[in-house]
Amino acid sequence: SSVAHNRGRIDFANLNAETRFDGYTAYAQSKLANILFANELAEQERGKLTSNSLHPGVITTKLLKTGFNSTGVSVEEGAATSIYLADSPDADGVTGKYFSDSRETSTAPHALDAATQKQLWAKSLEMINSVQ
Question: What amino acid positions are annotated as catalytic residues?
Answer without folding.
Answer: 27
